[in-house]
Amino acid sequence: MKDFHIILTAITSIILFVFGLENFSKEVQRITGEKFRKFLAKATKFPGLGLLIGAVVTAFIQSSSATSVIAISLVNAGVLSFQNSIGIILGANIGTTVTAQLVAFKLTAFAPVFIILGFALSFIRSKYSVFAKSLFYFGFVFFSLNLISSTLTPLQEDIRLIQFLTQPQSPFIGVLIGGLITAIVQSSSVTTGLAIIFTQQGLISLENAIPILMGANIGTTVTALLSIINMDIAAKKTALAHFLFNLGGVIIFLPLVMYWGNDFPLFSDVPAIALANFHLIFNLISSFTFLVILKPFTALIDRIMGEGKMDFQRIDVSFLAPENDYSSTEKKLIENLDQAYAFVQETYNLVTLSIETNYKGVYEAAQKRIEYFEYFRADLLSFFSRFISQCSGEKEIKELVGIMSKYEYLFQIHDSVKDITSIKEALDENYIELKSDLLLIVREISSETLSIFEQMAIKDLDQKSTKELKKKVSEFQNDLSKHNNNILRIMAMPERPDAGLVLHLITYSQRLKDKLVHYRTLFDKHPLGRSNALF
Q: Which of 330-334, 370-374, 440-444 has the largest mean confidence?
């Protein structure tokens, strides 16, 4: 009964540890938000710098899995190249060694200080209150480790258990155990923390604990591998590189560990500290080894996966550099406006098509495009704010502001398209299927909106074409009103929950139509734009 109580308490403590670690990582990512992702995307041009950034970021958020998944999502969104992502992946394994060092040197004793500080900050109205939860969860993580340690203390008296865990085991079994545990909890920090605590308690020998830590490096790649199922070839390359890198490190070190055994240089006679030192040495040497052979390593990934194609064409942002001269930058910005407009149009097509067909793949493709455009918007607005300060006179400033206003309207059009995705989400969440009468309305609205999208993009409309476009917009407005009245009648039927969602589509389509008209009108009024006013 006593042993059962110890096991139950230990499992509860481990669950608390996993909970704290997951929430700490989420809190840090929530605080940093898009700035954090954007920083990763821009600061990885050199692999060595990427390695340093990956290490620091992982040490901060205490999750190499989270860092690697973020890097892969940035690659998938097209804002980070496959080559630039490798540095982050290499550095992530170094950053995760911080947990081991903190536990080994028993610095977790300061956990209550962070819990109390985080709790107190949550009651204070201050700009620092935003850090309250992250501080609380940081302390909670190490408080849970202390709890695990104290829970396992009675097991030191169980001679049979100690003999079983401390007698030499096959390193391959240790690697397998470490990989499986990490794959299940999806965090190498959990496996590392537990291994060091078991070593501190004398419940497991250093010789048996080392392979478990190596296996954790392989297990931590499972999260990244699971995240790439519906991603681009570049993102799949990053995930494969992460797996091969971690597997390669184990293949390199395992023979050395088996050869040296207890004589492996770990710079400490204290088992827990020696284990933490091995974790650091293992990841440092593995990372720098692969950094040296980075070009042939990435070439190998390219040969395995092939070049492949991205599932959609990215918008060219290579010219977004403050050092570029004004005239060439202005020209590129105007040229890219058409490309960005066509991008939003195709996204709208996919969004409405996903509502019509109910195909999950179409919806996921639309979501990828929306996510990418959000990155594009953040990059462009950041560039505008920096570049406008370099304008030489009032004329250049006025022209740049005019271009910026066009992009702002385009972003508003994108937001309306993004709003329409909520209809698809509501259909899926509530298991609602559109009836044939409403499917016809959706199809008609989509077709008319796409037609307006296309005609609004024509640069030089003559007087007759302008008149026809005005007539088309007016007819579309009448059709929306007609559909609105029909749907209101259908909504009176209790068995038609689908009608309310299509009513939302009409509202969003109305807003989208108005934004398209304003976007076109802005072009017509601007001296760099088109010649004929629409309204």
A: 440-444
